[in-house]
Amino acid sequence: MHRHFKLSLVCFAGVMTLPGIVNMLILYWYGNTVVIYVPGPVINLLDRTGLRKIEMNDNDAGEFNENLSGDGHLGLQNEKMKTLNKRNLNVLGLSNGTGKSFLTQISELEPLIEPDICKHDKVLLAILIFSNPSNIERRQVIRETWLSDIKSPIRYAFVIARNTNSDHKTELQEEIDEHKDIVQFDFIDSYKNLTFKTVSSFKWIISVCPRASYVLKIDDDMWLNKKALTSVLVHGAIKGAIGGNCHRGQPPIRDPGNKYYIPWSSYPYGIYPPFCSGTAYVVDFQVMKDIVNVSKDVPYFPLEDIYVALCMTKLKAKVINLYGFNSVRVRANPCWLKSDWLVTTHEFLPFELRRIWNTQCYGLNQVRKVKGQFDPQIRGSLHLKRQQLNRLNMEQMFRHNAKINLRSGGRRFVKSPRLIFN
User: 237 phi and psi, to 5 degrees?
Assistant: First the structure.
């Protein structure tokens, strides 16, 4: 009976649509596991019944550890790694030619400035916010928005390196002295050094927060919904794993004009191992320690999310696509971004983060302003049902637009209010 089911599943493998779930593409049946791929940015905003996770299990990771010929397979045997390690470091101009292992080079990159953010307390989550030294405004806005209500089980630090531009040197030093939440490393802060920055910050957080349970790595142009993230962690969705907006079967980009260009000489394989977007991912603390330890056997790679994936493959650890993590900009009502539906979204400017944070919400609806102040009827209507609040919003928007229409001599159409999406 079971065999017939497996055969029929393989024969009809393809796109499936399940009620209340996104479309899924079944790749293959392996043992007792159905391996599926769900496009990372695609989420169901209408019926969320639980956390969505796709496990790239040990069997999947094992495929990449075998030294098989042909594109699409990644050989990570020790001798090959040593050769690639020396070659990559030299070709990319990131080594003095001594052939030191990546971990050896990282161990020499001690922080110039480091705050004691944990004081060896037991911490649920340590947040590493990757920033450029010149992004002073971004960091301040983050402190005033999604970091402003940080509670004791969560700690954070901004991670920067050295800046070649000395224009903001004084302002940066004042910021460091005032907030004491910045760790700075002694190398140039650039995109090509992002892998150094990542492993260095992992190594640092291990020393200052040894009792943390999870670590979140996130960029400074992201919106983070801490409440939704905490729910993911409490449910143990990534115990012994790394999770975020993760992808499988992605090929390297071979276009020299592309920011993410990787030459064949640096990566002579057809696909990357399963990886999570570097914009934001959360990793189990023990797994992060294992990543740092195994990095001595994994060649340097300029794309930090792929480098972490190579380490995860070597460890045969799980990569999980988590519901609500987005590596792209989600154009939605701020109240959607503040709800349990979304954990992270990308590409927000400082003023947009303020707008999201300052938006007053009732469920998924904005409590709207009329003539610069909140309407008393809506302000006191939080006990009303959502349908009633929607009707109040629509009536207010109609009255407001009708006045504009009359003032313009009837030349403007009255637009329907957008209660869900902007």
Answer: -65, -25
Residue 353: phi and psi, rounded to 5, are -60, -40
CB 176 within 8 A of CB 104: no
Stretches in the chain below the pLDDT threshold 50: 1-100, 370-392, 394-422
Could you report the per-residue pLDDT of 153-191, keeping only the tens digit for each?
Answer: 899 999 999 988 777 889 999 999 999 999 999 999 999
Go through the chain and tell me how many residues it has: 422
Q: Which helix (H) or strand (E) holds 64?
A: helix 58-65
Q: Which residues pair with 374 in a beta bridge?
A: 369
- What gap in Å lies between CA 194 and CA 202, rounded to an integer? 12
The C-alpha atoms of residue 62 and residue 204 are separated, in whole angstroms, by: 29
| Cβ atoms within 10 Å of 31's Cβ, excluding its own | 9
Q: What is the CA radius of gyration of the chain?
A: 24
The sign of the dihedral angle between the CA atoms of 334, 331, 160, 127 is: positive
CB neighbour list of residue 234: distance below 8 Å, 6 or more residues apart: none
Total H helices, total E strands in the chain = 14, 18
For residue 123, what are the β-bridge partners? Answer: 212
Token pair recorded at residue 195: 């892998």
Domains detected in the chain: 2-37 (no CATH), 62-345 (3.90.550.50), 360-422 (no CATH)
Please choose, from the candidates 115, 113, 125, the residue with its C-alpha nearest in 3D space to the C-alpha of residue 285: 125
Tens digit of each residue's pLDDT (9 = 90 or more) over 213-246: 999 999 999 999 999 999 889 888 899 999 999 9
Q: Tokens 């300029």 sit at which residue? A: 302
Q: Is 379 left (phi over 0), alpha (psi -120 to 50) or beta?
A: alpha
205: phi then psi, degrees, rounded to nearest 5:
-65, -30
Residue 105, pLDDT score: 56
Distant-in-sequence, close-in-space partners of 379: CB < 8 Å, separation ≥ 6: 367
- The β-bridge partners of 16 are 24
3-state secondary structure of 11: helix
Q: Which residues of 268-297 are buried (b: 16+ CB within 10 A; e: fewer)?
A: ebeebbbbbbbbbbbbbbebbbbbbebbeb
Residue 46 and residue 66: Cα distance in Å, rounded?
41
Give the Cα-Cα-Cα angle 176, 203, 169 (nearest 5 degrees): 25
What pLDDT score does 161 carry?
A: 95
Helix 285-294 to helix 194-208 angle (10° resolution) is 130
